[in-house]
Amino acid sequence: MLQFLFVFVQFSWGIIQNIAGLIGFLILAPTHKHETYHNAVVTYVSAKNFGGVSMGMFIFMNPDKSEEWKHDTRIHEYGHCFQSILLGPLYLIVIGLPSSIWCNFPVFTKMRREKNISYYWLFCEGWANIWGRLASRESFVTKDMLEHAYFGKPIKPAKFELQNKGR
Predict the structure, then answer these.
(1) How many C-beta neighbours within 10 Å does residue 72 have?
(2) Is there a contact between 84 and 91 (Cβ–Cβ < 8 Å)?
(3) How big is the CA angle at 156 (ends 85 and 38), to the nearest 5 degrees?
(4) 137 Ramachandran zone, left/alpha/beta (phi>0; psi -120 to 50)
(5) Which pLDDT belongs to residue 1?
(6) In DSSP terms, which residues pair with 42 in a beta bridge?
(7) CA angle 61, 126, 81 (to 5 degrees)
(8) Contact yes or no for 51/63 (Cβ under 8 A)
(9) What are the phi and psi torsion angles at 48 (to 5°)?
(10) Which is it for strands 58-61 and 52-55: parallel, antiparallel or unpaired?
(11) pLDDT at position 159
């Protein structure tokens, strides 16, 4: 039932980004590995200087990274899937545009590098980490995520992490 609701809301309220993601998936599916991750569709795309992007319930990410990086990136990109559910047609303006500019414009890349500013400092990226952890009920494992995932600060343990700490 939850899977149906996830897909239904993505393809109704979030139709714009999901159609774009579906087109990308259909183009890449015959030649690229893909899998599901908590009802989202992950397609692995090898490309230099590419990390990941989410278009509704479709996640595209680089398979040529460490297993830990891929684990954390799936959680982060899944957080963007939930932003799509929450924002619907506003997702591309509120999340997609700022995220794309923050990630790809050389002035911001240089600023992050020179001033040691985390990529997750930007509101939409830190917010994606929060939603990704809550929705997937998984924890980050890489040093970068543990130290910077919460809007550039160390991530606070989630309730489910505190409950499972002694087990």
Answers:
(1) 23
(2) yes
(3) 35
(4) left
(5) 76
(6) 35, 59
(7) 50
(8) no
(9) -60, 140
(10) antiparallel
(11) 65
Give the pLDDT confidence of 27-53 residue by residue, as tens digits: 999 999 999 999 999 999 998 889 999
Number of neighbouring beta carbons within 10 Å of residue 85: 18
As beta bridge partners, residue 52 has: 61
Per-residue model confidence (pLDDT) at position 160:
60
Q: Position of tokens 């980490």?
A: 129
Residue 28, CB half-sphere, CA atoms under 13 Å: how many? 21
| Average pLDDT of span 120-137 | 96
Q: What is the dihedral of CA 122, 85, 29, 104, to 10 degrees?
A: -20
Q: What is the rounded CA–CA span in Å between residue 91 and residue 80? A: 9
Q: Domain boundaries in the chain? A: 2-164
Burial-class residue 116 by CB neighbours within 10 Å (0-12, 13-18, 19+): exposed
Q: How sure is the predictor about 164, in pLDDT bands with cuts at 50, 70 and 90?
A: low
Q: Give Rg (Cα) of the chain.
A: 16
pTM of the model: 0.91
Three-class SS of 46-97: CCCCCCEEEECCEEEECCCCCHHHHHHHHHHHHHHHHHHHHHHHHHHHHHHH
